[in-house]
Write a structure and sequence with these properties.
This protein is α+β, with helices and mostly antiparallel strands. It contains six helices and eleven strands.
Length: 227
């Protein structure tokens, strides 16, 4: 179902009218809905670690490089994220924040395989991974839309574009957000959206927003086993 199909469904509910275009249209309803759709898909993408958006990045290591550019389509880490080593049975430990990272740089404990943090558009590892260690991690891609030519992009730009997640959820999001923008009662429509979101997320086995605590094992480097 294209974004135009979603727009048609929403407009029938909201205005009892059919629409023949969205991104080529110029009336106020079409322009406002373009903005609403853009906000809606970004919000939906943040609500869950959707498998359809999940990708893996493998870093190519040379034994000296410690700072690696993130993938071009990097959106965010998974809620339960790890950086995996290919030679150690435990994972890199995430620095809690930049202050802890500064302290680690000054007084790094003997932890195997090391620590990671993301800032400045890069994945930073400490110490520099061994040659051919090639750590990997999973992330949520920023591209939420597929064009009719098969290319992926972060936002809708054409009526023929397709949302990579649940289209019916997008329709419900369009309905309650438009009513909210118009100052109308949208409580029931938002509830319908949230119910649908919960149903879809429960069937999608991406990581849930609960962090498991594995700090003890990673900080005890003597427990690590080289593969």
């Amino acid at each position: 179902m294209t974004v135009l199909d979603c727009f048609k469904q929403a407009s029938r509910r909201l205005l009892a009218q059919d629409q023949n275009s969205l991104f080529t249209g110029t009336d106020a309803f079409q322009i406002k809905m373009q903005a609403i759709i853009s906000e809606a898909i970004l919000d939906i993408a943040q609500q869950h670690d959707w498998l359809a958006l999940t990708k893996q990045c493998t870093l190519t290591t040379d034994g000296q490089t410690a700072d690696f550019d993130l993938p071009a389509d990097y959106g965010r880490m998974l809620v339960k994220s790890d950086v995996h080593s290919s030679i150690w049975s435990v994972n890199y430990q995430a620095a809690k924040d930049l202050d802890e990272w500064t302290q680690l740089q000054r007084f790094m404990p003997s932890t195997i395989p090391g620590y990671w943090i993301i800032y400045g558009g890069q994945m930073h590892l400490m110490p520099a991974p061994r040659i051919n260690e090639n750590p990997c991690f999973w992330y949520i891609a920023s591209n939420l839309v597929r064009g009719d030519d098969g290319t992926f992009k972060p936002q809708f730009t054409a009526d023929s574009d397709i949302f990579l997640l649940d289209e019916q959820l997008l329709v419900l999001a369009m309905v309650w957000r438009w009513k909210q923008a118009e100052g109308l009662d949208y409580a029931e429509d938002m509830q319908n959206y949230e119910v649908r979101l919960s149903q879809i997320a429960s069937k999608d086995h991406g990581s849930k927003p609960i962090r498991s605590s594995r700090n003890g094992l990673n900080r005890l480097g003597i427990w690590a086993i080289a593969r």
